[in-house]
Amino acid sequence: xxxxxxxxxxxxxxxxxxxxxxxxxxxxxxxxxxxxxxxxxxxxxxxxxxxxxxxxxxxxxxxxxxxxxxxxxxxxxxxxxxxxxxxxxxxxxxxxxxxxxxxxxxxxxxxxxxxxxxxxxxxxxxxxxxxxxxxxxxxxxxxxxxxxxxxxxxxxxxxxxxxxxxxxxxxxxxxxxxxxxxxxxxxxxxxxxxxxxxxxxxxxxxxxxxxxxxxxxxxxxxxxxxxxxxxxxxxxxxxxxxxxxxxxxxxxxxxxxxxxxxxxxxxxxxxxxxxxxxxxxxxxxxxxxxxxxxxxxxxxxxxxxxxxxxxxxxxxxxxxxxxxxxxxxxxxxxxxxxxxxxxxxxxxxxxxxxxxxxxxxxxxxxxxxxxxxxxxxxxxxxxxxxxxxxxxxxxxxxxxxxxxxxxxxxxxxxxxxxxxxxxxxxxxxxxxxxxxxxxxxxxxxxxxxxxxxxxxxxxxxxxxxxxxxxxxxxxxxxxxxxxxxxxxxxxxxxxxxxxxxxxxxxxxxxxxxxxxxxxxxxxxxxxxxxxxx
Length: 533
Prior knowledge:
It contains 23 helices and 22 strands. α18 (405-410) links the parallel β19 and β20 (417-418). The longest helix has 18 residues, at 250-267. The strands form five sheets. Strands 1-7-4-2-3 form a five-stranded parallel sheet. Strands 8-12-11-9-10 form a five-stranded parallel sheet. A five-stranded parallel sheet has the order 13-17-16-14-15, with helices on one face. By secondary structure, it is α/β, with parallel strands linked by helices.
């Protein structure tokens, strides 16, 4: 579809840039899959794959009159008009296409960035440069371990990342928990505290958080994280389960609270009573409400209307959690530490941030994890696992799995083809024609949305597997593993050079070199409004 044929207005790159510079609300969304997005995108573009828009839009862009600008050309196909049509059907009223797409942004002198979560990573580099965040090299840390020095190593990543690989003797203390809990691990102020992550950002932010909050211990980041550890030829541990103590003494809590409130105030964080929250819901203003405690604490009881976003990951993945740049962000906890610390970083990243003043425990009346805010799945023709098994045996059906490619590799129906929902047309060209098609995914949810897409591409009957691949496996039917039938490349997931345990040394070093260059990119881009205190 050409620009003349589609019914959507366009917005040029300069207008987008002006909105960012004026701090007006805008969501610049890239509707390609994650891998092409990670190759090049503007600083404040948020990845919103066309394949999953219905599942994510209402949560990530809650206000239906938000100004949304869409781009996303991939492999010669302009995905943006299709995405804009879906957004309009979802009720969004101010949707336009980026004039000329990403190519025009670049041609106009717009800076583009690699990788994911770039605003947070580039901010981390700026923090280290401005504050001279202390760090130790991998060999220096290894020497401390070898001589059994008085040292505590804390891993600021998610617990599942820590379990995959960790520095020997380290303890899992995800980012927002550091200031709250580190004194329990290192009560002697002479104990050296070392903060690590996989690469650099969470190590830097975690270390500087402890410094900013006035921790009396000597603190340092593990320079370049587990990447630096691996490049130094040192051995990582796997499957560790050490966590910081849950209980925090009254003395340590009071110290953490004082430090957190001080840095939050210096960063310009605003405070608001729970009863006054509705005053932030002004016309034309998006308000994100996040509970920054652990997911377990959130499920046990949280303020109604607040989503779970553990503080360390919120700071690390702000572009995913809050894709509307210029929006307001409200944070809550139950200890006056984690929200203040997380808010202090978001404020320095240019966000208008509020922390909810302490509330009575009874106010956290919501329990569990609320259902996702998404449209009802379309009505589709379905097939039971046993019936599909008979069709496969008869050889007159093609099964298409639109789950995440990583899930497909782990487990899929024998003979099933992997396809990305937004690329079903390309997938059909790679597959032999079939008399009927069955779509599946992990649960059948995404497959139900994909069914309408497939029906527009074929005259053959289209069905969805009831309960998805999970129901197939639960029925005791066989599954297989591996990249057995890829109808399209696995571009839905960008492989981070710092995740997993089988990364090439060259890729890890290239990643570090890229991070070192982010400050220069920020200076060229000039839309960030980062202010390090």
